[in-house]
Specification:
The chain has no helices and 12 strands. With 146 residues, the protein is mainly beta. The chain has one domain: Sandwich (Jelly Rolls).
């Protein structure tokens, strides 16, 4: 199993001129990426939590709207502690940033604006790893108040 690292918020930037806006993430290395998918939240009531991976790592990028993303490093995959530290990140389309979620973490997220879209990148192909995905109750470590 890979060594668990810390979540990292990879900062991007923007350039605006008469031609439009260019967003960039020059410090984001895509060499480990094997697949990508998008999730759209039509309203701010939908919560996707807690899911994670023992081996696979993920990267989140908000392409539209805004999301609150929470992460927890799991101490025991069969019976995790209920008092684990929750890391909270705000991703917004106006702030080009990529959130790196290393293996060993579970994530939860919800849109803070209607019709928000989150791009999710992974370093393993679909079904490439057996029994890697783990899910827990959405209120195990935090509440998701509107």
């Amino acid at each position: 199993m890979q060594t668990v690292q810390k979540p990292i918020l990879i900062q991007g930037g923007s350039h605006i001129d008469e031609r439009g806006r260019l967003d960039f993430m020059n410090d984001f290395n895509l060499s480990d990426i094997k697949r990508m998918y998008m999730t759209t939240h039509y309203n701010t009531n939908v919560i996707r939590a807690w899911q994670g991976h023992k081996i696979e790592s993920r990267w989140f990028y908000c392409t539209q709207g805004a999301f609150t993303v929470k992460l927890v490093q799991v101490d025991d995959w069969e019976n995790p502690s209920s008092d684990l530290k929750v890391f909270t990140f705000e991703l917004e389309e106006e702030k080009p940033q990529v959130l790196y979620i290393p293996n060993g973490y579970v994530n939860g997220f919800k849109a803070t604006k209607e019709n928000s879209k989150l791009m999710i990148l992974a370093d393993y192909g679909l079904n490439e790893i057996e029994n890697d995905a783990v899910r827990f109750d959405q209120n195990k470590w935090t509440t998701w108040d509107n």
